[in-house]
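SAMPLE LOG
Freezer: B-3
Tube label: C17
Construct: single chain, 198 aa
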Amino acid sequence: MFSLHTIKPAIMVAMLSVAGSFSAFAEPMKFLNFDQQGQLIRPTGYREWIFIGAPLTPNDMNNGKAAFPEFHNVYIDPVSWTYWKRTGEFKDETVIVKELVSVSGKQAVSGNGYFQGEYIGLEAMVKSRQQFPKAPGNWGFFRFTIENSDELHARAAAQAEHNCSTCHQHNAAKDQVFTQYYPVLRAAEARGQAGSGR
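STRUCTURE (predicted):
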């Protein structure tokens, strides 16, 4: 056993430095950032978040006119994921990112299907009482895509309600999120750590 009174000053400084480092890691990470004009700053590092699914509505199953004929790789920020597992609700400042990926082909060594090609865009929906106090569910929808370009906008203004929110309001199963298409979310809903498994 030892007492703080018997620890040499140099060792004490080192211990406090380590404690400070752990304290810094304990601070909640911020995934949602707006500029002074209320535009959403494009999220980064989202491929390290929780992947919840990759819906696809291909043209050849929709008379050649699918509204969204690309894969949507969808991620939720890890803090909101933890909250979802505990409560079954999407917390304020939830960020859900949708990465758009082209369909590259329909054949692979494993057989016929739909296979991902190139990244073609990025969208996001965020829940913010501060930014969207009057919006249904406090959700805002954003598009960073630059058509026919590999580049993305660094920031984006919220989309008009009829562009995204109206469809989400009428068709999403839970708080404007299409949980009916994401078994990862359904399996974890309000199940605590049990939601990390099947």
